[in-house]
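Backbones bend. Our protein:
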Amino acid sequence: MSPRPTWLHTRSAELRAALLDLGLTITAAEAQTILDDKISEYAALMRVSRRTAQDDFTDERLMSFAQSLALSLSDEAPGADLIAFERTISMPVAALGLTTAALAEALKVAHINLDDTEAVTGLSLLSTLGMITADADARAFLVPVPRPPLLRIARYLDAAAASIARGANLPDRLDEAHRRHFADILAQDADGIRALANTDDGDTPALWRTPNPR
């Protein structure tokens, strides 16, 4: 006899279907992560149990959430050729370094937790970022980067941070005492990259944290 589907499994499948109707496709793992984070956020905000938060997540609320999610994901230009996309963000070399390092750390999370889908997604983002960087003037302090891949990277880092906060396996050589700090740094990098992606054209954004503080 097959096990009964969980609430998260059933509702995340419905979320994927709603997004598909809106022209967007996400994986089952991404849908479950997004919905799980939404329920946790609602339960903490309203100070209710997780069961109550699930009961409050009606069909109408799911559709509203899918619509707002579709609007935010559409900024990531799903299906577009990111290499050929207009490069409107001026990214400092130091910010590029932080972003590359953060992606590598998030990839470690996918690897240690045997999540092949997330690993492939992360490697694709890393490859895209590398190819865009290779096109830049080697003498320039700023690297022109398209906005959509930065938003995708920020969401990828958020997902890795949430996974670690929920108790996922830590990368090798990182002990339990540093779990919270590791998740916080990934989330901080996600916020910094997202802020950079939303910087007005022509502005030079400040670096969101100091690399290798001494």
Remarks:
- Residues 7-74 form one domain.
